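Researcher: Here's a chain I'd like modeled. Treat it as a single chain, no partners, no ligands.
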Amino acid sequence: MKIPPFRVAAFLNNPDPGVRVFLVYGPDAGLRHEWGSLLAKKLVSDPEDPFCSVRLPASTVAADPARLLDEMAAIPFGGGRRFVRLLHAEDNCAPALSSLLQAMPAGDSVLLVEADDLDRRSKLRALCEGESPLACGIPCYVEDAAARQRTIADILKAEEIVAARDVVGALAEALPSDRLAMRQELEKFALYVGKGRSATMADVQATVQDAGAAEMTDLAFAVGAGDAGRVIRLLDRLYAEQASPVALLRAVQRHFVRLQWARAEADKGLSAPEAVKRLRPPVFWKHESAMAAQLRRWSCVRTEQALRRLYDTEESVKRTGAPDAALCAQALLALAA
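Model: Modeled as a single isolated chain. Structure tokens:
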């Protein structure tokens, strides 16, 4: 079965006791790590206990499919629940998982399968999101703007920080899209503001932006400005930090959607700076002049063409076996040119 987004939080807090196989997948590596860790702590008392837990690389299971069933059937030394973690799984692990679901060993052992983004034709997804009551799939997609703001508000609330809507919106615009990186930056932001205090736009400007946490925003501005050299440098850095091509494409998509909206306002008679000032959430003050300059460079027709190229590229990179990093880079460099 597939766990829909609105049910994920409740499911992670109280996993179905009848499920033995949990597939956590998607383009957001930070969110996969966060949800996988939360789920592991709910399934076993100590996910790192070497007497009860084992980590299996995908290459091991692909080469020896019987290994997965053997590990799930193993009895933990000293008792307790057996916890198996299959890392970086791909469709070449599907035969082993299929055999496991057909002959699940007795007991209460559980398997957590962690995978990158899988398209709809993925065999792993078909096995875990199909009719078997023993398995489930939990997708970890990059959040849309509204969901992202809710997540940031919830994290700040847990840190006992009061934040107005415009502050949350500015954070959503500036912070990296990857959940783990976003949470790390918010923890630093909360430490700066102080528990029990109200966060202000000045706090955002003094910490988040200056901390260099907006590399994806920088990439989007470099694409819009036609700075191909900077696009290449930022892509190299972001890929080295394990940024997902889908996350990069969506960051640039958000930029061009805002650019298109401001361009439409400018076409009604507003000056470029006035149109930029109307954007919500507001453009970070250091980027206002750059955004205004890009309004003069991009017409509504051209922004529409750019967005169509970005959406088509995102669809292409999600296909199994596609050279996702290369396709993403090709599209962004084409737009910058």
